Amino acid sequence: MWKYLQKISKNLTVAIPVMMVAGFLAGVTTDMGWIKSLIIPFTFLMVYPMMVTLKIRKVFEGGDSKAQVLTQFINFGIVPFAAFGIGMFFFSETPYMALGLLLAGLVPTSGMTISWTGFARGNMSAAVKMTVIGLVAGSLLTPLYVEALMGASIAIDMAAVGRQIFFIVFLPMVLGFSTRLLLMRKYGQQEFQRNIGPKFPALSTLGVLGIVFVALALKARTIAAQPELLLGILAPLILLYVFNFALSTFMGKALLPRGDAIALVYGSVMRNLSIALAIAMNAFGPQGADAALVIALAYIIQVQSAAWYVKLTDKVFGPEAPVEEPAGA
Fold first, then answer.
1. Please, what is the Cα angle at 23 between 275 and 6, to 5 degrees?
2. For the chain, where are the alpha helices, taking DSSP H only?
3. Average pLDDT, whole number, for the chain?
4. pLDDT tens sequence across 42-77
């Protein structure tokens, strides 16, 4: 079972579109209103396993402060406002879709930030710190950004958003950290890192695929009636990701060494779409399905673009410097 789950995790570029199509077909052919009851279980399955493998202590290690500051400046000083502007331009008549684009640009970094940084041979330690800092800061700031930027367009229950973030992020974080400590105490750090910890991200993938299925099933009949809707959503998403990649690449190349620059790109472009999707589905009632559809489509753009960026890394930043052999080796 674990081998199949890990294989799916490594092939999200295929698995997510397949699940979207399955959700669409299910929603068109049958009444899927009952599936809303699965949102909370899928949300927990999506977020909790990710928290078990999160190395919170890495935040307190030094050595890459400039990269950390630049990353969070992009994450909270630029990208949310770009997402808001693009969203209001393209979705002026459908504010909940604009909300979806904003949420997709609000919660930075996920476990994939670390994975893609590793694939591109960037600074993994910096990526771990960016993930933890971005996740905590993004969760705390999301209600404030949503209220400040979207409050004039949609009714926002700040208490509801705050409650959802508590249950979606902070409660799983505490439970995940506690699980990590218990497992390491029982099996030892080496056994946990080698054989136990790597199994948890695969469980998280099941949650992601489940939520994507639900989001498409709930919006299937709307999409069937307005097929041009998908193209109308993909255009602003592509624009947002192109802007984010270009900005992060420019700043990374100009201001940071190669390894830190790669971490900055993935630490600012990879958004935590799982949490954004969970907030959209849980905090905004039936209209949250509009926001969820935008975020579900963002998965396709994000995963595909990250994979292509890995292939282009050496062309963008130059080849990795060879490791010098010690004298007399």
1. 60
2. 2-9, 12-29, 39-52, 65-73, 79-90, 95-104, 111-119, 124-150, 158-165, 171-187, 189-191, 200-225, 228-255, 258-269, 273-283, 288-317
3. 84
4. 878 877 887 787 777 766 666 788 999 999 999 999
Residue 325 maps to a domain: no
Residue 118 lies in a domain: yes
Non-local (6+) Cβ contacts of 329 within 8 A are none
**Domain membership flag for residue 318:** no
Helix (H, G, I), strand (E, B) or coil at 297: helix
pTM: 0.79
Task: Tell whether the model's pLDDT for residue 3 goes beyond 90.
Answer: no
CATH of the domain at 125: 1.20.1530.20
Residue 164: domain span = 2-312
| Total of domains in the chain | 1
Query: How many C-beta neighbours within 10 Å does residue 184 have?
Result: 16
